Amino acid sequence: MTPADLSLTVLHAVRRAVDDGALRVDVPPTVKVERARPGGVGEYASNVALTLARSAGRTALDIAGILEERLRDTPGLQAVDVTGPGFLNFTLRPDAGGELVRAVREAGDAYGSGTALAGVTVRFADLTESRALLVTETVVRLLRSQGADAGFGQDQPAQDQPALDEPTHAPPRAETRAETHTPAPDATPQRIHVHPGPYEPRSLGVDAARWALLRAAPQDRPLDGPPLLVQHERNPLFRVRYAHSRVRRLLDNAAQLGFGPAYEIPVHAPELLGVLGDHPVVLLTAARHRAPDRVARHLEATADALLAFQHTVLPLGDEKPSAAHRSRLALAEAAGTVLAGGLSVLGISAPERI
After folding, report:
1. Which one-letter DSSP state was computed for residue 108?
2. How far apart are CA 281 and CA 313, in angstroms?
3. What is the DSSP letter of 19?
4. Cβ-contact 312, 255 below 8 angstroms
5. Within a 10 A sphere around the Cβ of 55, how many other Cβ atoms?
6. Is residue 347 part of a domain?
7. In Å, how far are 100, 114, 189, 259 from 277, measured between CA atoms?
8. pTM attached to this predicted model
9. pLDDT tens, residue by residue, 307-341
10. Is there a contact between 111 and 139 (Cβ–Cβ < 8 Å)?
11. What is d(CA 120, CA 122) in angstroms, rounded to the nearest whole number?
12. Is residue 10 in some structural domain?
């Protein structure tokens, strides 16, 4: 169960509680689920009961208890606990890692795409400044990945302003009926507040030039370009792309040893499983907040978790490949898929070798 799945599960519990009369509130459009903080219970937590308490005219603890009753037998959840003033805490079943890996493998680079913003139409003003165009172009891609009808201009639906360059791997566009919607004639195209910065693919290459402008928050100064060309662990762009290439090498080396990826037994890798599960939420949040930098930061976290985990994947010495190795390789492969998909959203290539 991914955080996005869990968010929908909690939302459905709220809706059931309203439908059967246990709660009298307006069902929120979304429910926020985030990683449990240090000292918390389980892997994830939600403050939905606290946000509904005032409108329901009841205590958050009462609401949390109502929702807990409707969540306790949910497939994929081992336990639901109520803590503090009314936080819901979720412990996933031990096989949740297998569900996550299978979800990534089935979706491929499109893992994290969805329809949460289906029916939403967004138009951005035509732009000329390099960084503003690059950031907005990437936000359009993020919005479309979540089902929104997004583009430039006012008159034609999903109109694309000519991009600075074409990404190596463009993520599949979510096909929804929302793409046939046109904005109201008097709708004012949006603008994202962006600190200007030059786009320099000739001196930096496309990948470093894009990362320099997208990794910093749009309103902040872009990153200095030359350090992004150094192949060193202090270079976050290098770490992300190197982590992807390491996955490819692990798969090649495993094939030479006669085995492939197959998630057969639980793998203890909470940090890596956590960031992979967070990926759909990160993409949706980045789309809503018009913040591609959130995707870049998440890719750094994913790369760091993978690089810390990679040493456990292949057999050592005379050790024979086992179910544990096949399962770890499947998890590493899923991480590589997330890295490739995230890089493609930013228009950056995911190399096979570095």
Report:
1. G
2. 27
3. H
4. no
5. 12
6. no
7. 7, 14, 34, 26
8. 0.76
9. 999 999 999 989 999 999 999 999 999 999 999 99
10. no
11. 7
12. yes
Tell me the pLDDT tens digit for each residue of 57-69. 999 999 999 999 9
Residue 187 has pLDDT above 70, yes or no: no
* 3-class DSSP state of 45: strand
DSSP-assigned beta bridge partners for residue 79: 91
| Rounded-to-integer distance, Cα 48 and Cα 28, Å | 9
Q: Which two tokens stand for residue 67?
A: 């929702």
Is 28 contained in some domain? Answer: yes
Other CB atoms within a 10 A radius of the CB of residue 162 amount to: 8
Which residue range is the domain that position 59 belongs to? Answer: 3-93
Q: How many domains does the chain have?
A: 1
Cβ proximity of 281 and 7 under 8 Å? yes
In this structure, are strands 121-124 and 149-152 parallel, antiparallel, or unpaired? parallel
- The continuous run of DSSP H or E covering 325 comes out as helix 323-345
Residues 6+ apart with CB under 8 A from 206: 165, 347, 348, 349
82-134, pLDDT tens digit by residue?
999 999 999 988 777 888 999 999 999 999 999 989 999 999 999 899 999 99
Q: Return the CATH number at 74.
A: 3.30.1360.70
3-state helix, strand, coil in the chain (%, to 5): 50, 10, 45
> Is there a domain that residue 354 lies in?
no
Of 209, 337, 218, the C-alpha closest to 280 is: 337
Give the Cα separation of 204 and 223 in Å (integer): 12
